[in-house]
Specification:
It is a single chain. This protein has 243 residues and is α/β, with parallel strands linked by helices. The protein has a single domain, classed as Spore Coat Polysaccharide Biosynthesis Protein SpsA, Chain A, CATH 3.90.550. Helix content is 25%, strand content 27%. The longest helix has 11 residues. The radius of gyration is 17 Å and the shape is globular.
Length: 243
């Protein structure tokens, strides 16, 4: 990862059906934890890591995000927006960032992933890897993306939604990445997965198979996938950074 990323892309277009009434009038990343939207925590964490230009991908109830954050000047950052018109997966949505990122490296985060700000700082450190992918140690990676690593902590495979009996790795995809511009050709050549979506992880697997170095970065601080009302309730009891 040559060069220090000063740009970031945050995916905040999702409706968040599992949030039920919490997201009826707002996109999922705008659900509040301790009186502050999840997206606020992400933007502030990126700012702390030295990221100054951020593209937010918006979609469902996009005006809620734009009205809250505007051009980012109140946070001391520059925010621009691109709309995801078609909800067709996490792969093609990254293509919306191509013009914004140009040839610069960038951090990418899902808009419902809360991490210790130190995580973003790890991803801004120059590295020779083509891509850096954050992982968490877990007893059950079958709930999301199972990540398979070699002895050098390089990614050798990614597998989505495996059954518990199929997963023989303790590593789970934590949903925050550092990319270089060489991700975009892989995004452009994506085909739909069996569930009818363009998957970002398919592009990453293709890079691995082409011999690109994909380095895993372990998140040791707090991490939360704000996926449902139960998670929100738990975080309101034990706020991010205090547990």
């Amino acid at each position: 990862m040559s060069g220090r990323p000063t740009k970031a892309v945050v995916l905040a277009a999702g409706r968040g059906a599992r949030m039920r009434e919490l997201a009826q009038s707002k996109p999922k990343p705008m659900v509040e934890i301790c009186g502050k939207p999840v997206l606020s925590y992400i933007l502030e964490g990126l700012r702390e890591a030295g990221v100054r230009q951020i593209l937010i991908v918006i979609g469902y109830r996009k005006e809620v995000v734009v009205d809250r954050f505007g051009d980012g000047s109140a946070l001391g950052i520059e925010i621009v927006y691109r709309e995801q018109v078609r909800q067709d997966g996490t792969g093609k949505v990254v293509e919306l960032a191509k013009e914004f990122c140009g040839s610069d490296p960038f951090i990418l985060s899902y808009g419902d992933i809360l991490v210790d700000p130190a995580c973003y700082l790890l991803l801004t450190k120059p590295d020779e890897a083509d891509l850096m992918l954050t992982v968490r140690h877990t007893q059950d990676p079958s709930k999301g993306g199972a990540v398979y690593l070699n002895e050098k902590f390089d990614v050798i495979d990614l597998r989505e939604k495996q059954l518990p009996a199929e997963s023989n790795t303790p590593w789970y995809n934590a949903g925050v990445y550092a990319f270089k511009s060489n991700i975009f050709p892989y995004i452009a050549s994506l085909e739909k997965s069996p569930r009818g979506e363009y998957e970002l992880t398919d592009a990453i697997v293709a890079m691995v198979r082409d011999g690109k170095r994909v380095k895993a970065v372990e998140i040791k601080g707090y991490w939360a996938d704000v996926r449902d009302p139960e998670t929100v309730s738990a975080l309101n009891v034990n706020p991010p950074g205090e547990n």
